[in-house]
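User: Structure please.
Assistant: Input sequence and predicted structure:
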Amino acid sequence: MVKPLRDLANFFEEAGKIARFAGRFLQAVWKPPYELRELFHQCYVIGYQSLFLIALTGFIMGLVLDLQTRPTMIEFGAESYLPAMIGISVVREIGPVITALMCAGKIGSSIGAELGSMRVTEQIDAMEVSGTNPFKYLVVTRILATMLMLPVLAMLSNAVGLFGSFLVENLKGGVTPVLYYNKVMNNLAFGDLIPSFTKCFFFGFAIGLVGCYKGYYAKKGTVGVGAAANVAVVLASMLVFVLDLIAVLIADIFYEL
């Protein structure tokens, strides 16, 4: 088989394995026992320990977006529309996607490396022998925690990003906090928030799923652990863009109705 066809076959084979892994998760998530203690621990690890990184990224994102857009808006005499434009851009698209990409790098690689090291050191096999369900304890809790925490982190990123934009508007344009808040909120609708945070659940599912899959089936010792972490980041980032494209197309259809 020629290399392009072989690569295509490997792609579809890997996609099928990931889909089967996702189906296994959807079956296991409803069945007891429910590892709530581990779920809360993973929410702490994934959510709380990522707060500073997400907040810093969101703040810089708001600053840079405002600084880059402001000269053009001034040139066209539309400076007064800048807070509304930044608010819509951050809440609808930039905040969730940037948060998901940061989490794909931090959380996806962490999960892939952690589960990969447990696989190559036979800790997962030891859990199976001892009567513990490693899939429920390791995989289900991590995917659920990622799904729950990513929307929260996206909300934080949006808020901090808008605060960074406000600082630029306040220092360069003399915009007061009340005026900036009113300009943003008057141009945001409830329909802007729901799609934004809904797709964050799917982003979290994709990141957790890929990280767990690559780590759970890691091979070839420490080399396999590094490969699992690396591929988890790349594949999760690609899935974030694909899911975002699908969400935008669906939203565009509803807007046209």
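The chain has one domain: 42-250.
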